[in-house]
């Protein structure tokens, strides 16, 4: 069996724990490799070497560091297809979607080429008589990124780009489900000129994560994953005084007003609900049509679109709309939740439970599901399903619809479909959710804005990428300087003893 290890000090580092986790091919259900899980001692070793390497890297001028990012962009583009193939084979998402995953990470690296501008600091001339005041942005030292399975290129790139270009060293702990792309990215960064030891990829599970959280050397943790783990990491990181930003799960509502273009809304819902098998933190999992007429018409438009969805392996290229989910356990959890929906009285309009793909019977494929007449007390409404399951909650009015989204414990993304500017404006202004789409189903902000949810979708301060990332990965030092007035009226010519 092929083994996957760590990347420490610029080379593969064989793990010695004897503990491994299986990496599947989700399309076939086969184990394709086993991943070494790091011990605390291995993590501490990687951290110690990173701390040494960070000293010179932090002192390297920002423009030289940015040039490494410039070269990295070229290398990712050069190897795009190869990266996307590996990504699809471990995650299961379609080949075009895997390229999108890499592309949205690459855009953050492009943004990081401008890091010198963001690291400039501030200066006040003559803050007092003969006094100047200036603030510097300095790297934190060694920081950590802990990332989820669902974007194995994008989210590691969101972490490493800003952290490294700000002069930090980073310990990256990718998801144990699809670890190969982060390792490939680390090799490309070395080829781009990143000194060895500045980025260490340490694979592992809870044991490794806990070692990161307890490390006195690591100054900050950037986490993305499910809400219970986000909250755990946030709390435990704070106990050792770390800076932490922890992004969690989601339940994104799309409100469909009676004046919306229903064809456009139905197309958007199908893409945002079922794309990537629903394994996106910005997937729309709840449709909220306003008024019975809107709801009936929407369901009528959704059904034929959903029935046409093509589910298959990534090797079918553009011929599939979405692939398998990531593990057997994920599939079982989705089907369990679907059953609770049926048991609790929701109407299962499209039932994907018997879905079977010839030749891929052991793959982790889940057929598309559509629920109607879901109510807020049901588990399928309260919990994140993270699968190809769209729930429809009928609302009698706009106020009821916005109230639903506002009362939900998650607050990652949301969207409204309407032709009315006033409603859209009111929605964007009042909603207590971090990312809002107006006739846009998946409003993922571009690299130069910032990404982050509210409520239980995000713990800690500052968002990912954009200027916030540079605030998160640096700390401010402010200097107040007054110099004694010097000799300005000619030189002294006599040999002078020291007083
Ligand atoms: P996960 O929480 O299971 O794992 C995320 C990371 O935490 C992994 O690296 C994993 O090894 C580690 N981990 C898992 N269990 C742990 C434990 N008990 N103690 C310490 N560390 C642990 O999440 P996942 O299944 O990989 O990813 C899917 C989740 O991520 C979904 O909930 C999704 O909404 C969320 N997500 C959120 C965002 C966002 O920006 N808000 C983006 C992508 C994904």
Topology:
Layout: E1 3-4, E2 6-8, E3 11-13, E4 20-25, E5 30-36, H1 40-59, H2 62-78, H3 80-91, H4 95-112, H5 115-118, E6 122-128, E7 131-139, E8 142-146, H6 154-165, E9 169-173, H7 180-192, E10 199-201, H8 206-214, E11 218-224, H9 227-239, E12 243-247, E13 252-256, H10 262-274, E14 284-289, H11 292-307, H12 328-343, E15 347-350, E16 369-372, H13 379-382, E17 389-392, H14 398-407, E18 410-411, E19 413-417, H15 421-430, E20 435-438, E21 454-455, E22 458-460, H16 466-472, E23 474-482
Parallel strand pairs: 1-5, 8-9, 8-11, 9-10, 11-12, 13-14, 13-19, 14-17, 16-17, 19-20
Antiparallel strand pairs: 2-3, 4-5, 6-7, 7-23, 12-22, 15-16, 18-21
Helix pairs in contact: 2-4, 2-7, 3-4, 4-6, 10-11
């Amino acid at each position: 069996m092929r083994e996957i290890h760590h990347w420490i000090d610029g080379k593969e580092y064989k793990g010695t724990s004897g503990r491994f986790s299986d990496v599947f091919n989700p399309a076939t259900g086969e184990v394709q490799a086993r991943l070494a899980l790091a011990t605390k001692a291995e993590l501490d070793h990687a951290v110690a070497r990173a701390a040494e390497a960070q000293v010179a890297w932090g002192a390297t001028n920002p423009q030289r560091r940015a040039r490494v990012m410039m070269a990295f962009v070229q290398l990712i583009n050069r190897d795009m297809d190869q990266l996307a193939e590996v990504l699809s084979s471990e995650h299961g998402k379609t080949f075009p979607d895997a390229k999108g995953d890499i592309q949205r990470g690459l855009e953050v690296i492009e943004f990081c080429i401008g890091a010198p501008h963001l690291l400039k600091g501030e200066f006040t001339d003559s803050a007092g008589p003969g006094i100047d005041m200036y603030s510097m942005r300095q790297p934190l030292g060694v920081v950590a990124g802990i990332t989820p399975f669902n974007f194995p290129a994008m989210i590691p790139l969101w972490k490493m780009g800003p952290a490294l270009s700000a002069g930090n060293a980073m310990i990256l702990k990718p998801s144990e489900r699809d670890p190969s792309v982060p390792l490939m990215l680390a090799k490309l960064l070395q080829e781009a000129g990143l000194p060895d030891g500045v980025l260490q990829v340490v694979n592992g599970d809870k044991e490794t994560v806990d070692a990161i959280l307890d490390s006195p050397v690591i100054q900050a943790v950037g986490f993305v994953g499910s809400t219970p783990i986000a909250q755990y990491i946030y709390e435990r990181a704070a106990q050792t005084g770390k800076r932490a930003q922890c992004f969690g799960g989601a339940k994104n509502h799309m409100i469909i007003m009676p004046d919306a273009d229903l064809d456009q809304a139905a197309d958007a819902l199908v893409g945002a609900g079922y794309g990537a098998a629903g394994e996106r933190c910005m997937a729309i999992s709840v449709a909220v049509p306003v008024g019975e007429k809107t709801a009936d018409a929407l369901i009528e438009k959704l059904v034929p679109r959903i029935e046409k969805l093509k589910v298959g392996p990534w090797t079918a290229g553009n011929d599939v709309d979405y692939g398998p989910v990531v593990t057997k356990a994920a599939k079982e959890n989705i089907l369990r939740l679907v059953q609770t929906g049926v048991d609790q009285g929701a109407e299962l309009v499209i039932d994907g439970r018997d879905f079977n793909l010839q030749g891929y019977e052991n793959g982790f494929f889940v057929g598309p599901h559509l629920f109607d007449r879901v109510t807020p007390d049901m588990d399928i409404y309260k919990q994140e399903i993270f699968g190809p399951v769209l729930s429809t909650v009928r609302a009698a009015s706009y106020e009821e619809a916005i109230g639903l989204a506002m009362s939900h414990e998650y607050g990652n993304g949301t969207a409204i479909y309407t032709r009315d500017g006033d409603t859209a404006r009111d929605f964007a202004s009042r909603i207590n959710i971090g990312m809002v789409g107006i006739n846009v189903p998946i409003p993922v902000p571009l690299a130069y804005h910032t990404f982050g949810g509210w409520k239980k979708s995000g713990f800690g301060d500052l968002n990912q990428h954009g200027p916030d990332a540079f605030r998160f990965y640096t700390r401010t030092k402010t200097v107040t300087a007054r110099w004694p007035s010097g000799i300005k009226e000619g030189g002294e010519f006599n040999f002078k003893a020291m007083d």
